[in-house]
Amino acid sequence: PAVGVRVPRELTWFQYLFGFSEAAAIAEGGRIGSVRNLEAVRSKFELAEDGTLTSTVNGASYGAGVFSMPSLAELRSAAASAGLRPGTVTVRHEATPDIFEMHTRPELAGGGR
């Protein structure tokens, strides 16, 4: 979606991006929490070797990263070997009625303000 585009109120962000209702796909899969639910959603996507995730419903494609869940010790080790300067991190909670719109703001690109 273009920068600053608002998701129409009648759609969820998921419907807007991928062209189908995640909740409806999950319901198609049968009992909530079953593997069939996951497969019902997964079947509507193709994942290319280059990491491109494409909705088979509307043809929209997005780059998909690799999921990892490192331990705190692994993160500290990676940070130490990256040669980063010590510093502080500031985390701020910001309530917004439309997080999708907020994520498309050019001034927030690059992970900070």
Describe the structure.
This protein starts with 12 loop residues before the first helix and ends in a 10-residue tail after the last helix. The longest helix has 10 residues, at about 70-80. It has helices at about 15-20, 20-30, 35-40, 70-80, 100-105; strands at about 45, 50-55, 60-65. It is α+β, with helices and mostly antiparallel strands and about 110 residues long. Helix 2 packs across helix 3.
Q: How would the blueprint of this fold be written?
A:
Elements lengths: L12 H6 L3 H7 L6 H8 L2 E3 L4 E4 L5 E3 L8 H10 L17 H5 L10
Antiparallel strand pairs: 1-2, 2-3
Helix pairs in contact: 2-3
Rg computed from alpha carbons, rounded to a whole number of angstroms: 18 Å
- Oligomeric state of this protein: single chain
* Overall pLDDT: 81
- Provide the low-confidence segments as ranges: none
Global geometry: extended
Instruction: Calculate the terminal CA-CA distance, rounded to whole Å.
Output: 22 Å
Structural class: alpha+beta
The amount of helix comes to 25-40%
Most strands sheet: 3 strands, antiparallel
Work out the strand percent.
5-15%
Biggest β-sheet: strands ordered side by side in the sheet: 1-2-3
Q: How many runs of DSSP E, i.e. beta strands?
A: 3
Instruction: Work out the helix count.
Output: 5
Order of helices and strands: HHHEEEHH
Q: What's a concise summary of this model?
A:
The protein is α+β, with helices and mostly antiparallel strands. The protein is 32% helix and 9% strand.
